[in-house]
Design brief:
Blueprint: E1 6-9, H1 15-25, H2 32-38, E2 44-50, E3 57-67, E4 89-98, H3 107-119, E5 127-135, H4 139-147, E6 151-162, E7 165-175, H5 189-209
Parallel strand pairs: 4-5
Antiparallel strand pairs: 1-2, 2-3, 3-4, 5-7, 6-7
């Protein structure tokens, strides 16, 4: 427990509060089942920081541990096959947010550190990487994750659809428990520079023909 907040896991009774916070924090709109899952399903690590006086949620982090077979196609290259086994897992951060009045108080860092502590415990040694997707234009978020030892893994053009418009994203990854990135001559050139080039060619073509 920190002097300014306490921790607990999300519960079904939190669903309306979580909905309100996510609508404030994130431009992406989540479906109804997402809120039901992260507040009740045991498969998710859904940790909330609560206000010491009124108990309201002031920050939360949600993570899902999965096998490489379960990740999206663009995330299959997260781990080096050299140290990857059938038991290897990766942890996907679905959400990390903090209310405005508690930002710049290291609450986001505290929540992330709680997750990393959990994922590096003896029972989670098979988890080899933690990763997430973030808007390419969200400089505050990308700077935050870089400060916490995440590295850019892949540029994802037109990944999000927000308010009727496409938006680029990046995936970020932090290796833990002995996990390593793919070991090839073209990594990370292929996964970063080539998609960026494709993105800007597509934008140029849109400008010319539309």
């Amino acid at each position: 427990m920190d002097a300014s907040w306490s921790y607990r896991f999300l519960e079904p009774r939190d669903i309306d509060e979580v909905k309100d916070l996510c609508r404030i924090w994130f431009p992406v709109r989540y479906p109804e089942f997402w809120y039901q899952d992260v507040t009740s399903a045991e498969r998710y690590y859904s940790l909330a920081a609560t206000h010491p006086v009124d108990g309201h949620i002031i920050g939360m982090i949600v993570c899902d541990v999965k096998s490489l077979k379960q990740v999206n196609r663009e995330d299959h290259s997260l781990l080096s096959r050299e140290h990857c086994t059938e038991d290897s897992r990766v942890a996907y951060i679905l959400s990390l947010g903090v209310v405005e009045s508690f930002r710049r108080k290291r609450l986001g860092s505290a929540l992330l550190n709680k997750l990393i502590e959990y994922l590096t415990s003896p029972v989670k040694r098979h988890v080899k990487a933690v990763y997430l997707h973030v808007l390419f234009s969200n400089m505050a978020a990308t700077s935050f994750y870089r400060k916490h030892d995440f590295r850019e893994h892949m540029f994802l053009p037109f990944y999000y659809h927000i308010n009727g418009r496409s938006a680029d994203a990046c995936s970020y990854v932090r290796y833990i428990n002995g996990g390593t990135p793919p070991k090839t001559i073209i990594y990370p050139l292929f996964y970063n520079c080539v998609p960026v080039l494709v993105c800007y060619i597509a934008l140029l073509l849109q400008t010319i023909f539309y």
